[in-house]
Specification:
This protein is an alpha+beta fold and 97 residues long. It has helices at 3-11, 32-38, 92-96; strands at 14-19, 22-27, 45-46, 52-53, 66-69, 72-76, 87-89. It is built from 3 helices and 7 strands; from the N terminus they run αββαβββββα.
């Protein structure tokens, strides 16, 4: 294996995390916001009016992507990288009921 092969393998490493109790695998380096899309989550949180909200700006300014990550509330999904064993909670699970 040469250095280019090793770099390609590192780029495609997969990690497992939990979103609203459902385990999913994503590539290392994926943001939590992207993982939410991959998992089919339709809304990260609820607005004051009860509407679903999710990542909009992708750079942390709008704060529409706030979720609970590893017990830390109001974490910005678009600014947080996924890590193995991460536990993410959104309001989407409650809305689906």
């Amino acid at each position: 294996m040469n250095d280019a092969d090793a770099d390609a393998d590192a780029d495609t490493a997969r990690i497992r995390l939990s979103i609203d109790g459902r385990r999913i695998d994503v590539e290392a380096g994926t943001t939590v916001a992207a993982a939410l899309v991959i998992a089919g989550v339709k809304g990260a949180r609820l607005s004051a009016g009860g509407e679903r909200r999710s990542a909009l700006c992708g750079m942390g300014v709008c704060q529409e992507c706030r979720v609970t990550i590893d017990g830390r509330a109001h974490a910005l999904a678009c600014q947080t990288l996924c890590h193995a064993g991460q536990i993410i909670h959104t309001h989407d699970a409650a809305l689906a009921r």
